[in-house]
Every structure is written in C-alpha cells, then in structure tokens.
Amino acid sequence: MFDKILIANRGEIACRVIETARRLGVQTVAVYSDADAHSKHVALADQAVHIGPPAVNESYLLGDRIIAAALKTGAQAIHPGYGFLSENPDFVDAVVAAGLKFIGPSADAIRAMGLKDAAKNLMQKSGVPVVPGYHGESQDLELLQSEAEKIGYPVLIKARAGGGGKGMRLVENAADFSAALDSAQREASASFGDPICMVEKYITSPRHIEIQVFGDEHGNVIHLFERDCSLQRRHQKVIEEAPAPDMPADVRAAMGQAAIDAAKAVNYVGAGTVEFIVDGGDGLRTDGFWFMEMNTRLQVEHPVSEAITGLDFVELQLRVAAGEELPVKQDDLRINGWSFEARVYAEDVPKGFLPSTGTLHHLQFPTGSQFALGSTRIDSGVRMGDAISPYYDPMIAKVIVHGPTRAAALGQLRAALADTHIAGSVTNIGFLSALAAHDGVGAGQVDTGLIARDIDALTDMGTAPAELIGFAAVASLGLLDGAQSHDPFAAKSGFRAWGVANPVAILLMGDDTLQCHVEILGHDQFKITQGDVESRLHIQAGQNGDFTLLHDGVTSIVSLYQGDNAISVFANAQTLHFTRPDPLLGSSDAADGGDGIIAPMPGLVKLLNAHAGQSVSKGDVLIMLEAMKMEHSLTAPRDGIIAEVLTDVGDQVLDGAMLLQLEPVDI
C-alpha cells in the first residue's frame, strides 16, 4: 500500500478519498486554488499545496502543477477523483513519466473510451450492442441533418467527449436541428475543448442503467451490479438507486457480462462504469439495452453500489493501483438491500434550477453510519460557514440511504431529506423531496423523461402554510423562548403593565412582502393575522433547538435559523426562507428588470445578440450566459428598443448585474 497519495481534486470527492486513505493509514496531500484556501478538503488532508487562481484552467486543470506538488511532498501516487483531469490521458502519461502511479486506468484505456464515437465502434467489434446513429467525425451541417433524417426523429445530439449532459441536445424535428447543433458544439467546446458531436436515435421510453466494473493488473475483471440513474433533468442525474427496479436476473447477467466485455476490450484496470441506454417501454429485456459510454473513473453515484455490496470502492482503487489482486471474485458478490442517493445542490428551482451562491450559515444533516444496513450517509465537501463558489459545481452534499427493501430505503430518503436543513443559499431539497414522494418513483416506474413530464408538479411548492409564516413572524420579533436572538430584552418583549401586546412583523419571502400582526395571548401562545388569514399558535421550545408547534389541533416539529436579517424555517420537509427588510434602504427602481436583463446568477457571457438601437421582441434570446459549464439563455423581457448594452462576450458577471437596458416606454 502507498504511504502517501495526492488528490488532484476538490470538494466532496477529495474529502471522500481522504476518509478512506486515513482509515488505511495512508497520508494525503490536497491541492487548492485561491477560492479553496480554507475549504474542508484542505483542512482534512495531512498536507496541502496551493496551485493557482480560482479558474479551473489556471489551477485544477494544470497537470504540471499538480505533478510538481506530488513530487514536492513525496506522494507516490495521484488519485484524480472525478471531473477535472480524471479522464485526461495526457495527464496520465505525464504522471507515469514523472515516476508516479495514477490511481485509475491506463492512458490507452482512457483514450479508447474517451471519445464516444471511437468507443462505440470498438464496442461493436467486441460484440457489445450500441445505439443506432452517426458516430463519424464530420461536422458538416448538411451531412448531420441527412443522417438525422435517416435515423428518424427524435434524435439526440451528443458531444463525443466528456459527459454529465454537457453538449447534449434532444431534437424532435428537423427545423430545430441546426440551432441545437450550434448550442451543443459551443457547450462541448467550453466544457471539454472538443466541439465534435454525434447524432443518435433517441429511445422514447429510455432508462439509464449503468454497471459498475473493476479490473486489476492481473487480468481479473468483475462487475458490481447495476445502478439506475434514470431520474435526470436535462441529462443531469438527480436521484440514483441500486439495484435497478424490476431488473430480471437474466438481464442483469447479460448487462453485467457486456460491461465486463467492454472493460476487457481495453485491458481495464481500476474503477469504471459502463453506461447503457435501456428501452423500458415493455419491461427490461436482454435485447433492449445498448452501450452509451464508459466513464473511466469513479462515479459521483458510487456510494449506492458500495451500500449494496458492503465494499469501499476507494479502498479497492488504492489496492488495485498498488498492484494487489481484487480481493473478491464475481461469485462472492451478493446484493444486500437497496440504496438511494440524492444530490443536494445550491440552485434556485423556481428560477429554472439556476446555480446559486451564498454562505452556508446553517448546515444540519441527519446522522448515520457508513455501510450499515438501514443507515444514512452524507458525503459532503462543505461545512457550516463555507461559501458556495461561482467557480465550481454547486453541489452541497450527497444524501445516501440504505435499507432492507426499496420501499424502506425510499422512506429513509424522504426522512433524511426532511432532516437536511440548510440556510444561506437556496437549495433543491424541496424538489428532491417532491421527487422522492412521486407516485411513479415509489412504484419503480422510472425513466429519463419522468422529471420533464411532471416538472410543474415537482417544482410547485404550493402556498406557504400560514402557521409557518406565523412562526417566522413570532421569531422575527424575538418572542420565542430558546430562539436565537440578538436582542437581550427579547425574553421580556411581550410584557405589558396593561393591555395586549400587538407588534407587527414585516418579512420578505421571495418577491412578496408579508405584514403580520402578532397578538401575544399568553406564555407561548400567539394569534397572527396576515391579511384575512388568522392563525393561533402554541409554540414550545424543545430539545436540540427545535420547537413544537401546535396549530389547529396538529402538532409539528419546527426548526429555526436566524441570522442578522434572515430567517429560515424547516418543517414537514419544507424550507421557507425570509428576510427582514431594512427600513433605511427603501425601494430601488434599478432592481426592477422590466426594462432590462439582469444576470440571474454569476457567469460568463458566451454569446451576445444585441446592440444599442436594435428592435427586439419579448422572448428573443439576447445573451447566452454560461454558469457551471451549462448555457442559460437570457431573453428580452418585453418588446422594445435596446438603449444600452452593459456587457460583452467574455465578461465574468456577478449575480444581479444589469447586462442590458431597453429604452423606457412613454406613458
């Protein structure tokens, strides 16, 4: 076993590798950019080396600096994690040339599987089924349109490099093909430095099922069963599970063997995942799955496979890289229980899942123990007080559960999400909770189109309950026993020599201003009136900072976070965020985007279709903003004439920045 390894990554996966290395007695070296100087993975590692500014192309993508850091600190091997340089064969060659061990497959294996077109041609020769499509290099528009016509719409345009849904577009008719190809090529070029795209038949009832494989340097290759990753939004995985629901034994065996054949075709060593697109329209069949791609690294969703096999995949990676044989054979492996993983992101769901930033002022996860049946596990790269950076993926944590049955594990996932409390940044927890409670998900009727079909219901958080608004109002006035309050006299704020206290709380919730009249009826008892809605609450402080809320005969457990001007209420799998308005600031017309385009998140201006004096119609795409390597279209808010363009291609803009203004409308 190695004495010391360097982890060429950041965030959650770096922390995950450090955890296993520490258990095995292996020292770790972290690398970090300016933005990550005080991050969790730096604090956990035995040593840390600064490698550059926040931008990934000036830090985490600079292989020479990472190799120099490994040599400087005496590391013997480099673990790439996922993303960044994990599937860069030139980096692997450089690592080996420096006399270090790369904890992963060979550069030749990565090259063979790195470009989807070449990989599919290789799979066909190896007897692995592939999706019908055009996998050539030509990017001639007429040729690609002709191939799409031959395949038959709908088709999927896919970048041949990379993954994660980047550079991928679904095209349902010929009229949309050219624009979709342009967008996919731009995104592919920005994400992977390679604009070349393929065109494939789109399976209309698709499921995304992948097989985990492991190989060693002694020629042994095994599969560790399947994961179903069908719950996706815009080709980005949201909730994964293992094993796949309704998986017949013969199909599992056929897919497992196909994955082993794929790995053996490139002499694969280490952890890898063979991804298949599966036709779920008429049940899973041995002739209804096709090779999509192979990820030559550890997957984000690997914990669900760890849970059902009881194996630590990072440990297996280290042992295989150190020259050991795999400690298990195929016949030794059994599926034990069921596991789900939900990806918690800092993203604004009502605004179309836009990436968000902010400081995590409050961070509370459910507790659990790794690999134990019936457990909850949290893999996270952040701590309370950390900031979500605009430079990197906005993942906060992965919530992983393991239970004896699918129903039990899904129930645990719902409970774990309800117990995940985050304040300081908006998150997708409400969306994840709605998805985990979806009837189709509960029945195992999952496919890659489920979220898109039901997106309105899944993102509709409904009207905020009056009792929770009332609770927030009481809290904002400092009237809760045991609540966090900056007012030393808050405990006596309800005292009156005569009469009834009736203070007013003003709260902002999104774009709404709420005015709540709070009448103190007695100790822990309040009447809150908001407009024509009246709520009577009995609130008692409980253990661990929670409160028991009695309203209309129903008791709820409510948690609370209060900052300087922010209040977050957590109850019944809901999170409500409020702010107290500053009465000295008043209102500002500049914040109104009706006459302009405001950046909805930090990002890079990739495309500008606007100039002063130009006439535009409402909905015209004027600016393309790239955030987290995904493109977001910004459109004209109304018909009008552009008065001023305040940005340019290549600008890095901040959240809330005014990018374009229209001439005012004469009244």
Automatic annotation (TrEMBL):
Domain Biotin carboxylation: 1-456
Name the UniProt record assigns to this protein: 3-methylcrotonyl-CoA carboxylase subunit alpha
Keyword ATP-binding: yes
Domain ATP-grasp stretches: 120-322
Species of origin: Paramylibacter ulvae
Source organism, top-level taxon: Bacteria
InterPro entries, per the entry: ATP-grasp (IPR011761), BC-like_N (IPR005481), Biotin_BS (IPR001882), Biotin_carboxylase_complex (IPR050856), Biotin_carboxylation_dom (IPR011764), Biotin_COase_C (IPR005482), Biotin_lipoyl (IPR000089), CPAse_ATP-bd (IPR005479)
SMART domains, sorted: Biotin_carb_C
